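Quarterly update, task 2.4: 3-isopropylmalic acid-bound model.
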Amino acid sequence: MARADGQRTHRVALIEGDGIGPELVAGALAVLEAAQARVGGFRVELERLEGGAGLYRREGRNLSEQSLQTVRESDALLKGPTGLPDVRRPDGTEAGSLGGVLRTGLDVYANVRPVKLLPGVESALKLRPGDVDYVIVRENTEGLYLSRGKGVGNEQAMADTLMVTRTGTERVARFAFDLARKRSGAPSDGVRRVTCVDKSNVLASYAFFRRVFDEVGEEYPDVEKQHLYGDAAAQALVMRPSTFDVLVMENFLGDVLSDLGGGTVGGIGLCPSANAGDGRAYFEPIHGSAPDIAGQDRANPISQILATAMMLDYLGEAEASEAVWRAVWRALETGALRIGANGQPDGGTRRAAQAVAEAVGAA
Ligand code: IPM
Ligand code: MG
């Protein structure tokens, strides 16, 4: 952050991404502009970079070294979804996914995924807005995903190794406990609680994850600890979501359970995330690029808008961040913004973002 004309200036790298990415990012930028105008005192300087499947198709790489360097030098990166199902590497995995180059590459080890029941959304859960309000902290640099691009085998068999390290687990567990300290506990009872999700009844790597979690937990006597197996957690997130505050888990478990969580609160189109490390972070929706509806003004921009709100908070602009969260809440509550049962906003992407931008201005 630098100060010019008495204004705080934040340098933010921007990757629009593939599929619905550009539409979502356009919506989020309209809201960002409204928040800047409303709150004042800061300016976001954007630097657009190319990255993802489109670039890979043309150049054989999903991000240039120079762009990666720009990301490293920026205060944060705002990113749309990347990847396209038909753009694949020779090993069959998606080439446009930037997870390898950004998550592992930048060592942003905590993937922070808030799951919050907002007003006015269709949810199978018979709960009131705010009754679901937990954060999944997904380990972001190892676990099963460490094997990215490194699977071994032949035409008869293929293996990916799930690696859990002490350092990797200690730091993500600490992140989860520190986050719990900043929050006000689970909606059901107001108790600050971190739930360790694993499969320690079957796999040694997960048993190790649990052991290291327990060790770190001793440093946090003020935070309640809980353990759940991944399968039991899937059920509990549907049947008693209000009892959760912060959950921490291995990479792949976090991938699956965060989509499950999204499915209980109106769909992943409403779910933002932060990829955070020590002194570095980037922000994106938790979902993919949905090429089937790309360019049709149908996608839900809320995930991208809330990812921008998370970025503002990270940049030290807590007031602007809260203004965006409140605006989303209010737009949904008043019906200015309606999300259909299919997860898509009535009136389209642009209209939805405009409704939120207007609600920011009206705050
Ligand atoms: C996510 C996404 C990515 C992942 C995909 C797009 C590679 O599903 O961020 O959850 O699996 O991590
Ligand atoms: Mg996912």
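Highlight for this quarter: The pocket of magnesium ion (ligand 2) is lined by residues 255, 259, 286 (CB under 6 Å).
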